[in-house]
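Input/output pair, single chain:
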Amino acid sequence: MKKLQLYLLTAMVAVITFPALTSAAPAAASGTWDDCNFAPSFRAAGPNFVGTVGITENFFGTLSGTYAGTERDVVLADGSATFHGSGIFTGSVAGLSGTATFSYEGIAPAGQQIRATWVLVGVSGALLSVKGHGTFDGSFDGFSDACDAGLYSGSYDGSLNIRP
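Output:
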């Protein structure tokens, strides 16, 4: 019995002394997004095209803010594509404000919705304690003068880990 009490006391001291070792249960994340792709730079690679575009994106819902980054695309001869991007998210996540890195990768089957996975890691402010991941889907909405590589919108969902 004394060993059990000593073990429980040691565990309690560790939790109090090292709160970063404990974490809250994952929280759900969901919402919508829209983005503007601009300044495309593509080159031919056989029957395919490889390129980069700048992206600004607005998030609504659990993630509320803006993302600015670069996306790299491979557009295949059949019209499908793969893509991956990274940049900085500025705003709030589950009510906590700051900045975070945001990266994603996905596929765009020809004539179908895009699908991707995303990862968010807090880097400043209250977002230092936040990490998240999930999926998103979306569709092409057209072009504009400012968004010469396309306008897109969709929804996201995922899971957040917020350290106390």
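The chain has one domain: 23-162. The chain has a mean pLDDT of 89.
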